[in-house]
Amino acid sequence: MEIPRAERGGERERAMNWTDAEDIAIALSEKFPDTDPLTVRFTDLHRWVVDLPGFSDDPKGSNEGILEAIQMQWLEEARDR
């Protein structure tokens, strides 16, 4: 079983992109542990993702479907805590 990048000693092995919903969700749940992902507007979610350390994708490369996938992964992470 592969250990997720976020659990391999702190530093991520590669930069995060919009398609890395699980890694982004882990980073968001660590940065905003008391935030209910379902209360976050997509405009705020977009800004928070772009501002994450290790995020290196084009800020204009997201869309509603990508943000929703990140939000759902983040919700799953929050429920697992």
Q: Could you say which overall geometry the principal axes of the C-alpha atoms support? A: globular
Poorly predicted sequence stretches spanning 5 or more consecutive residues: 1-9
Largest sheet: none
What is the name of the CATH architecture?
Orthogonal Bundle
In CATH terms, what is the fold-level topology? Answer: Arc Repressor Mutant, subunit A
Would you give an account of this structure?
The chain is mainly α and 81 residues long. It has a single domain, classed as IscX-like (Arc Repressor Mutant, subunit A, Orthogonal Bundle). It is built from 3 helices and no strands. The protein has helices at residues 21-31, 42-50, 64-80. It is globular. The two termini are 21 Å apart.
Describe how the helices and strands are arranged.
Blueprint: H1 21-31, H2 42-50, H3 64-80
Helix pairs in contact: 1-3
Key descriptive features of the protein:
81 residues; mainly alpha; Arc Repressor Mutant, subunit A; disordered N terminus
In short:
The protein has 81 residues and is an all-alpha fold.
